[in-house]
Give the backbone structure.
Amino acid sequence: MTRVAAGIVRRAGKILACRRSAGMRHPGKWEFPGGKVEPGESVADCLRRELEEELGIAAEIGELVLTSVARYPDLQPIELSFFFVDRFAGEPERRDYAEIRWVAPSELAALDFLDGDREILDELTRAA
């Protein structure tokens, strides 16, 4: 099983959503930023590294919100761990993504998110 960390980056009541670029698997789909856990790396350390690489922010990883398993054709199952990220230094920049956008929780459902993010999307929308 592939382990992936994802961040629910929040600021001023909005959540950062990222749209995958043309060169990525599932281009054009929206997701929460993060990536694959490397051997010997904790899930929180992975997310901290990925947020620096993908968005240029130095993040303090907060509470684990949800862990779920996503299944996609032709891939082994993916264990997704979602964490709140409320504190970070720097301004998020679009390094790897086609677009990044601050979105109100009530507006998240209007974006075409990856299937693996749907469960946390439902949680965030319900909590709004």
The mean pLDDT is 93.
